């Protein structure tokens, strides 16, 4: 029999270096504890409070009804004739569906996202910024912040040796940044926030990190 093609030794070493603490052993142990509590195992506590990630709905926050209504209508347009949905949600769903190929949410969209949604985002930015025009053609929708960050890093990272791209990230940091940089084989450049000043940014510390990094990489 031939050996395994993909093993820890043969896989991409950049991926092997990735660490993502919010999905690590502490979370796995928390899941085990929750399961044990459901099974009636006696503990010195009655619940597990998830503080590893900003997962508001997992902590009991109720979702915004309007969003769920519009999504339900888009996924199953037959509900547009239902009296259980408000008219404003129906209008929003119809506008989105009109912009989809075949008037179906399952159709492919252009890479930057559905046009009416990008127009709405541009209008919001214009109102937020006191009337400064925003062009919907410059809006690129993503599947969450993490996907957008990784996409931008892919564009920035290049070079080898001392020419490798360096990216400054704050410490403490959200593990997405270090994980993405490890996967892309970029250089992580740490600068430390000032805990005594409510984790404020210190410009001198930022300059220190930048200057020292230039000896081993190309900060971008």
Residue stretches low in confidence (pLDDT < 50, at least 5 long) are none
Side by side, the strands of the main sheet go 2-1-3
Largest sheet: 3 strands, parallel
DSSP, total strands = 3
Roughly what fraction of the amino acids lie in strands? 5-15%
Organism: Elachura formosa
Pfam families: Aminotran_1_2
Cofactor: pyridoxal 5'-phosphate
GO biological process, one term: L-alanine catabolic process
Give a verbal description of the structure.
The chain has 220 residues and is mainly alpha-helical. Among the domains are: 1-52, no CATH class; 145-219. It has helices at 13-16, 25-38, 65-75, 87-98, 115-128, 145-156, 175-183, 203-213, and strands at residues 165-171, 187-192, 218-219. It is extended and about 65 Å long. The termini are far apart. The model has no long low-confidence stretch (mean pLDDT 92). Its cofactor is pyridoxal 5'-phosphate.
Brief sketch in words of this structure:
The protein has 220 residues and is mainly alpha-helical.
Give a quick set of tags describing it.
single chain; 8 helices; ALAT1/2-like; 220 residues; transferase; cytoplasm
Strand and helix layout:
Blueprint: H1 13-16, H2 25-38, H3 65-75, H4 87-98, H5 115-128, H6 145-156, E1 165-171, H7 175-183, E2 187-192, H8 203-213, E3 218-219
Parallel strand pairs: 1-2, 1-3
GO molecular function, one term: pyridoxal phosphate binding
Main location: cytoplasm
Subunit structure: Homodimer.
């Amino acid at each position: 029999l031939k050996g395994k093609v993909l093993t820890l030794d043969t896989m991409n070493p950049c991926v092997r270096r990735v660490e993502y603490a919010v999905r690590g052993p502490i979370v796995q142990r928390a899941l085990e504890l929750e399961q044990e509590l459901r099974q009636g195992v006696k503990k010195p506590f009655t619940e597990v409070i998830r503080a590893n990630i900003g997962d508001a709905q997992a902590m009991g926050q109720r979702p915004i009804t309007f969003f769920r209504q519009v999504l339900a209508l888009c996924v199953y347009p037959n509900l547009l004739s239902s009296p259980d949905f408000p008219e404003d949600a129906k209008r929003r769903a119809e506008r989105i569906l009109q912009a989809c190929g075949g008037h179906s949410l399952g159709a492919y969209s252009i890479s930057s996202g559905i046009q009416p949604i990008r127009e709405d985002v541009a209008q919001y930015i214009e109102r937020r910024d006191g009337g400064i025009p925003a062009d919907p053609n410059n809006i690129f929708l993503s599947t969450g912040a993490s996907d957008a960050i990784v996409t931008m890093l892919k564009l920035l990272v290049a070079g080898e040796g001392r020419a490798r791209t360096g990216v400054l990230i704050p410490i403490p940091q959200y593990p997405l940044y270090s994980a993405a940089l490890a996967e892309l084989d970029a250089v992580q450049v740490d600068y430390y926030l000032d805990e005594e000043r409510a984790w404020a940014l210190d410009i001198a510390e930022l300059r220190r990190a930048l200057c020292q990094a230039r000896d081993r990489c190309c900060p971008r």
